[in-house]
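Question (not urgent): is this output format expected?
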Amino acid sequence: MTLHSAKHWRFGLGKQVGPGTFLTTERIDGKKVRFETHFFEKEDVTGLFRNLDLGILSIKEIIREAAKKRAHWITIAEKGLG
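Got this back:
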């Protein structure tokens, strides 16, 4: 599973609607589209998997430095290990 990291360049953009969650509006094909995006800290990721009865086999934060920083959590989990 891939999840946005709080280190992603979009973190903090738009209106905050919850802890780590932001509502933004963009134009796609000439139409306004609203996105609600949650950004995760490592503790959020581990808590999410624990609550789903999933054991984490691997968790790694990937940060790609480019014109805009992209950051994601890459996780591999298995049911019943949580």
